[in-house]
Amino acid sequence: MKRLFDTIANIFKIEELRDRILLTLGLILVYRLGSFVVLPGVDPIVLEEASEGATGLAALLNIFAGGAFSRASVFALGIMPYISASIIMQLLGIAVPAVQKMQKEGESGRRKINQYTRFLTIAITAGQAPGYLATQVPDAAVVDPGFMSFTLPSIVILTAGTLFVMWLGEKITDRGIGNGISLIIMIGIIAGLPTAFLFEFDKQMGDGGGGLVIILIEVLILLVVILLTVLLVQGVRRVPVNFARKVAGGQQQAQGARQYIPLKVNASGVMPIIFAQALMMIPITLVNFSQSEELAGWASLFNDISGFWYNFIFAVMIILFTYFYTAITINPQQMADDLKKNNGFIPGVRPGQDTSNFLDNVLSRITLPGAIFLAFIAILPAFAINAGVSNNFALFFGGTSLLIMVGVVLDTLQQIESYLLMRHYDGLMKSGKLKGRASAFGMAG
Fold first, then answer.
1. Stretch 242-248: mean pLDDT
2. What single-letter DSSP state applies at residue 75?
3. Do domains 1-176 and 193-247+254-445 have the same CATH topology?
4. Which pairs with CB-CB distance under 8 Å and at least 24 residues apart come from 143-148?
5. Helix, strand and coil in the chain, % to nearest 5
6. Is the pLDDT of residue 385 over 80?
7. What's the mean pLDDT in 344-351?
8. pLDDT tens by residue, 308-317
9. Residue 323 CA to chain centroid, in angstroms?
10. Matching SUPFAM superfamilies, A to Z (predicted)?
11. Residue range 379-391: average pLDDT?
12. Of residues 432, 435, 400, the one with CA closest to residue 182
């Protein structure tokens, strides 16, 4: 315990780290306060009565938005439209040569892509806002439900709210402790955890519940799932690498060294989950603009998070996105070229194209089980719901919520630990580093 307090004290001794943490906390506070600001013209009491017992995708989106979705807050649509825009831009980067060219232009190209992503976010939010108002805000909760008096101003406010949340995330990434978008999603998720657990506790301790024993079993299973999730996020396949001795002017300049390339089992992190979840919203958004009962029945498949087809499609999309995101973030050819330039080689493998093929094969073999395991954890809430766990608590029982929380917490701890180690302070773990997060040769990031 003393070591923990010493580490916390060391964190606040580093001025830059302290300022970044305080800025991050301040921006998160602004986000949480904004999630309680209700749209003008909405009666929050009537809205609360109408939204009680929300299930399905609406409940999941409400968790991601930290409760803002059900409160008809100015941040009701949260960061998900920005995620959808990012998905579209990455897909365009594969199919559209102009976008590919921007991706290769370095910092200037990145700024252009970010600007186009923001414009696309505005379009997506403006498209989702009418559907949200039509399905989640009943006329009984609106003082004056006219188009000019309520609908149009609310669309503008919801769009501005999403852009503001996006801005907060970018500021946390640039001037805070990083991972701004993911951190905002995680904060929204954690905000609903205490309430969900208390609801489950009351349910099990009440009439017809399983009592304290069932609560303890659920918590134990949840801890096991958390452990498995940490193993998935931390797991790496270490590819050994040798570096030849450098000799200049007849003198040996550097000793040969043996290091490794850490290829993560889940190199894509939480992004496949976020991507898949964002795309699952598209059919419902489109149906909101149609009056067809046939389309409404088809879209209902995407709203039943405990149903077979929802989870089957969700799992398949996660596996596909895991491969897709791994392919666009890790380039075996670039890794092989970097190794060759630094006089490095994998024992038993020729430098150049053979090294690239070897790394690609290893990456393919470890990505498949990682993707399947990722999909399995993502659909665990469906099993929990069908086993009798309350809907709100089941969403934390593995699934998207837990994966995002574990991934973001570990990445944030890694950011903090890097500052500590650079200043020669002890890290957050006894070994001095988070296992599997740091490496001697970080080419696979």
1. 65
2. T
3. yes
4. 143/41, 143/42, 143/43, 144/41
5. 70, 5, 25
6. yes
7. 84
8. 888 888 889 9
9. 16
10. Preprotein translocase SecY subunit
11. 84
12. 400
**Strands (DSSP E) found in 224-326:** 236-243, 246-248, 251-254, 257-264
pLDDT digits (tens, 9 = 90+) for 28-75: 999 999 989 999 988 888 887 766 655 556 666 777 777 788 888 999
The one-character DSSP state at 72 is T
pLDDT (tens digit per residue) in 248-271: 555 544 445 568 888 888 887 777
- Among positive and negative, which fits the CA dihedral 86, 90, 91, 96? positive
In Å, how far from its chain's centre is CA 306? 21
Sequence-ordered strand ranges (E) for 207-365: 236-243, 246-248, 251-254, 257-264, 344-345
Please list, in sequence order, all residues whose beta carbon lies within 8 angstroms of the beta carbon of residue 353, skipping any fewer than 6 positions away.
336
- Supply 47's token pair: 């809205």
Mean pLDDT in residue range 371-380: 88
Token duo for residue 405: 């929380």
Q: How far is the C-alpha of 32 from the C-alpha of 270, rounded, in Å? A: 22
In angstroms, the first-to-last Cα distance of the chain is 33
Cα–Cα dist 103/328, whole Å = 11
Q: Could you state, in order of their start, the residue ranges of all structural domains in the chain? A: 1-176, 193-247+254-445
Write the CB contacts of 202 (distance below 8 Å, at least 6 apart in sequence). none
Residue with tokens 């998160």: 28
361: tokens are: 């094969």
CA distance 47 to 62: 14
Q: Cα 275 vs. chain centroid, distance in angstroms?
A: 9
Give me the numbers of helices (H) and strands (E) for the chain, helices first please: 18, 5
The residue ranges of DSSP E strands in 122-217, in sequence order, are: none
The second-level CATH assignment, the architecture, of 1-176 is Orthogonal Bundle (1.10)
CATH class of this structure's domain 193-247+254-445: mainly alpha
Tell me the per-residue pLDDT of 142-170, one tens digit each, with 9 for 90 and over. Answer: 888 888 888 899 999 999 999 999 999 98
Q: Which two tokens stand for residue 132?
A: 């949200």
- Give the CA angle between residues 436, 437, 440 to the nearest 5°: 85
Distance CA 222, CA 240 (A): 35
CB within 8 A of 234, min separation 6: which ones?
410, 434, 435, 436, 437
pLDDT at 60: 67
